[in-house]
Design goal:
hpI Integrase, Chain A, 5 strands, two-stranded antiparallel sheet, mainly alpha, 3-stranded antiparallel β-sheet, globular, 2 domains, single chain, 54% helix
Length: 293
């Protein structure tokens, strides 16, 4: 059986249908990349799973890493899952992705300055074609959430009367309920007037075949990079750093770790560590508090 047929079989399986909608979309996106990848003369989707080699899988993984190690590791994880499904269904006798070595992703420590956040939002909100990218960034920064979750956020998550948002995170299914501050609330009210007729809060501004779709994981960083370049921002900055930035600002403001976890959705204090950064402000706050004790 060819790989694209195995993908179709998996997408019709109970295991896939039992996933959350956001997780389904992420899996489908990664599987589409897997099937479209060309290794040598072969497009993987057209290769029989019985004949697929570890070398082909390794070469495909290296291609994905050229774009993003983080995304490549996501595709690798889903590819392993797919072949485990194929093994259970006896479509093949081995999982060629099992022995592909995953590269470690370097832990980022970059945080945005408040001035840079303002530059980004000013540039994004000044043009209708980039406004939705700005809103995704605004929500990620304000609520300390993942950009990937914000691009898929739907209107049913917003309670305008109570000025609250209920977010179910895709990574570990954590659920957080957060307030909506005035500036962001005003933008969401305007956005609801312009895009409230469809489900996504910040979709691509132009419909495809009459349907408004969310930005893809691959395209959003590319559009955001152009926007940031036009705004004169450092090439070191990424939208994904906004979650860490907001978390770091809470630390510098003296917010307790438990309260930070109630915002970020982390299950343990240790899991918050990658988002923290040693800064003068946080050190000064700690030493001042010690003297007052």
């Amino acid at each position: 059986m060819k790989l694209n047929k195995v993908v179709a079989d998996y997408l019709s399986s109970y295991d896939y249908k039992n996933l959350r909608e956001n997780t389904k979309k992420r899996y489908k996106y990664f599987l589409d990349i897997l099937c479209a990848t060309q290794v040598g003369d072969d497009v993987l989707g057209k290769v029989s799973v019985k004949n697929m080699t570890t070398k082909q899988c390794k070469d495909a993984y290296n291609q994905w890493c050229d774009n993003s190690v983080g995304t490549a590791n996501g595709i690798l994880a889903i590819s392993r899952l797919l072949f485990n499904h194929a093994l259970r269904e006896e479509f093949c006798m081995m999982n060629p992705f099992t022995v592909v070595r995953k590269r470690a992703t370097e832990r980022r420590k970059v945080v945005w300055s408040k001035e840079d956040v303002t530059k980004l939002l000013d540039a994004a909100y000044s043009d209708f074609s980039t406004r939705n990218i700005g809103l995704i960034a605004h929500m990620a920064y304000e609520w300390c959430q993942r950009v990937g979750d914000m691009r898929l956020l739907t209107w049913d998550a917003i309670d305008f009367e109570q000025r609250r948002v209920l977010i179910q995170q895709s990574k570990r299914n954590a659920e957080v309920q957060l307030p909506i501050e005035d500036d962001l609330y005003g933008m969401l009210v305007q956005q609801e007037q312009d895009f409230g007729f469809q489900q996504y809060i910040a979709p691509r501004p132009k419909p495809r075949n009459g349907v408004y779709e969310p930005y893809t994981l691959y395209k959003l960083p590319l559009y955001a990079r152009k926007l940031m370049d036009d705004a004169g921002l450092s090439s070191e900055l990424r939208l994904s750093d906004l979650r860490r930035t907001g978390t770091t600002e809470m630390v510098e403001a003296g917010v307790g770790i438990g309260q930070i976890m109630s915002v970020t959705g982390h299950a343990t204090p240790q899991s918050v560590k990658p988002y923290l950064k040693n800064t003068y402000a946080s050190a000064n706050l700690a030493l001042t508090a010690r003297k007052k004790a």
